[in-house]
């Protein structure tokens, strides 16, 4: 039986921390970088329904709360407390709500620009699946408001190979850089 990396409970952090990145010239790295670029384009263009098609049906989409752990060598995010702990159902419901007049947090809609950089890919040993680490800078402007939001962080994704030409986002862990978020709401996707 072929077990995908997601079903095997792969530890995204361990792969990134202990793995050796694939060369930039590797086709798997090229495909992952293109996937992330296309995804950012869809989200910035508010093409949320099309973005949903990039997600695996068993996706885990998590954004843990970050705390400041002074003098500690341990990680400073709380994996048991999250801004988001989503699955496909909840992500689909958020997308559906954004297309209604009841998405007050996004009225007027945010203008966003996602800058994805420092992309590193790691083989999982499972039929073309890769773990991808990337840095994200998300700029957000709201209507005529003078203050804008800038959110930054690191993302660790599991891209699952569906075919030799297609992959799906199966897991996403976003570690934001700030402990206190300077934004009115989190009605955005990372």
Task: Show the helix and strand layout.
Layout: H1 12-18, H2 27-44, H3 48-52, E1 55-66, E2 77-86, H4 88-98, E3 110-123, E4 130-142, E5 149-161, E6 167-176
Parallel strand pairs: 1-6
Antiparallel strand pairs: 1-2, 3-4, 4-5, 5-6
Q: Order of helices and strands, N to C?
A: HHHEEHEEEE
Low-confidence spans: pLDDT under 50, at least 5 residues?
1-8
Q: Which overall shape is indicated by the principal axes computed on the Cα atoms?
A: globular
Assigned CATH class: Alpha Beta
Lateral arrangement of strands in the main beta sheet:
2-1-6-5-4-3
Strand content: 35-45%
The biggest sheet, with number of strands, parallel, antiparallel or mixed sense and barrel status, is: 6 strands, mixed
Task: Please tally the helical runs, counting DSSP H or I stretches of 4 or more residues.
Answer: 4
Instruction: Assign the CATH topology.
Output: Nuclear Transport Factor 2, Chain: A
Distance from first to last alpha carbon:
33 Å
- Output the radius of gyration: 17 Å
**Whole-number mean pLDDT:** 87
Q: How does the helix and strand content classify structurally? A: alpha+beta
How many domains in all?
A: 1
Give a count of the beta strands, DSSP E runs of length 2 or more.
6
Helix content: 10-25%
- The appropriate CATH architecture is Roll
